[in-house]
Design goal:
heterodimer; A: abc type-2 transporter like fold; 16 helices; elongated; B: Rossmann fold
């Protein structure tokens, strides 16, 4: 009882240190909600494309450019390569098409001219590449029949005019879960930061050599004391997680969070909270002082959240960074969020990849509990 | 009187270095036993071994007639410890800290409240109970450290250099508090390298050096080991060599030292040599500024036994 009382007094004394990551999470949640539009209607997207034409603007080349213009927005003024790279990164331009010299004649005579396409990442880029590839594949197929350029253009135009009417009877609007995904991805930082800060500060206080000596010589069973401390750490974690989940209902909306999807996000974050608790408990066995705890918290919470794609989507991160992220639990937590957001059915096959991510996060928790036990046993005696 | 602590052949080594070497002693109920020795003499190691905070290679330790062990919680419930370094929670108030450490022994809330108030009173921190440790001066912090160790009213108390780096007011307060604890019936093991405190407080003293007992007994018994009965100190500005040799010829003078204008004369016998010395100085027309006599200290005993100063 007295240990629990001291534990919570110390929590309250340090509560100010977790306000900052919580406010940031709240702001991030609010921004997430306001920046995501509803997708109740389907509208064909027109990707922005830059064309560098090294051929004459005649015949098949002219027809190819007109085809692109019909299905995309052609952008100009991107002569500077650095500017173009920036535009691709920020998705101001989705694709860059390089039409080679003698394209129209090479294509007509079936010489397979190479059209180079550079694109940004994401869905729009895939759409643009598919659109361009469709034209080139069609042209290449007709060119094999040894027809004139004019006939080739006519056949391509006729083929390109064919379209399929698509109607959506039932679809899961997974885009609306994207904001929940962003919120919970960012929550990985807040959870790690708050858990490491508070648990480490409290446990480090109890584990300080002099205080440990006092506890060890007292008539309270030290194993019982450790159990009480662990129980309170878990209670704190559960309370903090519940607070962040309640905040998600407030920031994202009950219509999203109180659904099967919302509950999966909640379960994922609960498992991650458990893992963050075990990490914090492990770090606390080293009895760091307050400034060291702050440093460790910054390195682990901020570092792993950044490396694993909590702030910047994983597709923009270099492969080397993502390869390193595989050893961090945040990576699997964020992966699970992404898979939950894109989930289209609630059957076992669809859920299996998510369950595997859950299992990996649980595995990390077990690993850190194991490591904590090893270190704690070595520190049982003062010498 | 019955023995509260029995230590037999205690040996504790760190690799090849024997920190405690075949130590045997008893602590009797109601006494204040002083463990005196220079830094590194094995005082704190002995204390930590007795408290089962350290493993040791050889020996047996009994407290209240039972063998001491890390899980001997019935013994631990009667022990209070004040460590050399302040061990309190920065995040808890003075009251919160004492309440916490008292709560490790006492479950009853009302009884604990009374005990905490008594501890605050004993160390004179009643007016500081709402303050946090960082708001306290060094001396007050030491008093809090003591209150945390003794709030549960233990019958055996270990005090490990509790007055290191404290102001004179706090030191007096602490020493008075310790006397009161003894008067209330506690048995106290007092570890220090301040011989003055041992002389004031302790009923019996054990002098340690290099992990071994080099002497033990009451203050008077120990002082008898020093081969001097009185020391007279004289501040003399100038002293010629022939004048200095004259002091050595005075009856019962065993040693004469002259350094930086201070003359120290040790007498092997007699307790009233001051008047004779004043007469001698007057007769030989030696001008002096100050003169005083003192009894030998435990430092003199230590010096006699080891050839070095306690504070070396």
């Amino acid at each position: 009882m007295i240990v629990s009382k001291a534990f919570w007094k110390i929590v309250l004394k340090n509560i100010s240190s977790i306000i900052t990551p919580t406010i940031i999470l709240l702001l991030f949640g609010a921004i997430s909600v306001s920046s995501t539009s509803s997708t109740s209607q389907f509208e064909a997207a027109e990707p922005s494309i830059v064309i560098f034409n090294h051929d004459e603007n005649i015949g098949l080349t002219k027809n190819f450019i007109e085809y692109i213009d019909k299905h995309a927005e052609i952008k100009t003024d991107y002569e500077d390569d650095d500017r173009l790279k920036d535009a691709l990164f920020y998705e101001n331009v989705i694709a860059v098409v390089d039409i080679p010299e003698n394209f129209h004649s090479d294509m007509t005579f079936n010489h397979n001219p190479e059209v180079k396409i550079r694109s940004s990442a994401g869905y729009s880029a895939e759409l643009a590449k598919t659109m361009i590839s469709r034209y080139l594949t069609t042209a290449s197929a007709y060119a094999k029949t040894n027809i004139s350029e004019q006939e080739l253009i006519s056949k391509i135009d006729a083929q390109m005019e064919n379209s399929v009417e698509v109607s959506i009877d039932k679809a899961v609007d997974t885009s609306k879960y994207a904001k929940a995904e962003r919120y919970f991805n960012f929550a990985s930082y807040s959870i790690l930061s708050c858990f490491i800060t508070i648990i480490c500060l409290i446990m480090s206080a109890f584990n300080r050599t002099q205080l440990r000596k006092r506890n060890l010589i007292s008539s309270m069973d030290i194993k019982k004391m450790n159990r009480v401390l662990l129980k309170n750490c878990c209670l704190y974690s559960l309370a903090a997680w519940a607070f962040y989940f309640a905040l998600s209902i407030f920031a994202i909306g009950a219509d999203i969070m109180l659904t099967q999807y919302g509950l999966l996000f909640a379960l994922n974050s609960l498992l991650f909270a458990g893992c963050a608790t075990s990490i914090a408990y492990f770090i606390s066995t080293f009895a760091l002082d307050a400034s060291a705890v702050n440093g460790v918290q910054i390195v682990i919470a901020l570092g792993s959240s950044f490396l694993c794609g909590a702030f910047v989507p994983a597709q923009y991160l270099p492969d080397s960074v993502l390869a390193f992220a595989h050893v961090l639990p945040s990576y699997y937590y964020i992966n699970a969020n992404s898979k939950i957001a894109g989930l289209e059915a609630f059957d076992f096959d669809a859920l299996l990849p998510i369950l595997i991510e859950f299992a990996i996060v649980i595995g990390f928790s077990v690993l850190f509990i194991f490591l904590t036990n090893i270190v704690a046993k070595k520190r049982q005696k003062i010498a | 009187m019955k023995n509260v602590i029995e230590v037999k052949h205690l040996t504790k080594s760190y690799k090849n270095n024997k920190a405690v070497d075949d130590l045997s002693f008893n602590v009797q109920e109601g006494e204040i036993l002083g463990l005196l020795g220079p830094n590194g003499s094995g005082k704190s190691t002995t204390m930590n071994c007795i408290l089962s905070l350290l493993n040791f290679q050889d020996g047996k330790i009994k407290i209240f007639g039972k063998e001491m062990a890390p899980d001997a919680y019935d013994i631990k419930s009667k022990i209070g410890v004040v460590f050399q370094d302040v061990a309190v929670f920065d995040e808890l108030t003075v009251y919160g800290n004492i309440d916490y450490f008292c709560g490790l022994y006492i479950d009853d809330k009302k009884m604990r409240e009374r005990y905490v108030d008594d501890a605050l009173k004993l160390v004179g921190l009643e007016d500081n109970k709402s303050q946090y440790p960082k708001q306290l001066s060094g001396g007050l912090l030491r008093r809090l450290n003591i209150a945390c160790g003794i709030a549960h009213k233990p019958s055996l108390i270990f005090l490990d250099e509790p007055t290191v780096a404290v102001d004179p007011q706090s030191r007096n307060n602490i020493l008075e508090g310790i006397k009161k604890l003894r008067d209330d019936g506690a048995t106290i093991v007092y570890t220090t390298h301040y011989m003055e405190e041992v002389e004031i407080l302790c009923d019996r003293v054990i002098i340690l050096d290099h992990g071994k007992i080099i002497a033990s007994g009451t203050n008077d018994e120990l002082k008898a080991l020093a081969k001097i009965e009185e020391k007279v100190t004289v501040e003399v500005a100038d002293l010629a060599p022939n004048q200095l040799s004259g002091f050595e010829k005075i009856k019962n003078v065993s040693e004469v030292e002259y350094d930086n204008g201070v003359l120290k004369i040790s007498y092997s016998k007699g307790k009233n040599n001051l008047i004779d010395m004043i007469e001698y100085l007057k007769t030989n027309k030696i001008n002096y500024k100050k003169i005083f006599a003192e009894r030998p200290t435990l430092n003199d005993v230590f010096l006699e036994l080891t050839g070095k100063d306690l504070r070396d």
